[in-house]
Amino acid sequence: MAIAIALHQLATVIWIGGMFFAHFALRQSAQDKLEPPQRLPLVLAVFDRFFVWVWLAVLLLWGSGFWIFSGIYGSRMGWHVHVMMAVALVMTALFAYLYFVPYRALGQRVKGGDWAGAAVRVTAIRRIILINLGLGLVTAMLGSAGRYLQF
Known about the structure:
- With 151 residues, the chain is mostly helical.
- The chain is built from 4 helices and no strands.
- Helix 2 (36-72) packs parallel to helix 4.
- It is elongated and about 55 Å long.
């Protein structure tokens, strides 16, 4: 059980921490210091590397989550775990959309030097990341404190 929980927490930290860094540190710094022809290729390169880690985190989260849920506890877990799984499904769907639609379009726009079009895609990605960050923080709080919440 310790391995499953450790893998689950590690994947959570990678995904949520990366979104927090991208939104609150990288985005603002790049926007303040770089013009679109420098900023947008940098943002794309960061996403190229980060999204590989997100896919790995998603696989680890779902794999370890099901391992913990069904393999260890036999599906007998509190309401907070069911909420976490529902939110995780939404987060995964949002990330898949982000990856296959605006991120791919961002790559095409950057390659073509269409800075205005690339900026539109970055804005869409930023909004989805912000939504997923909020959902991820709520899910992480449920994971750590959910069993202690009583309604």
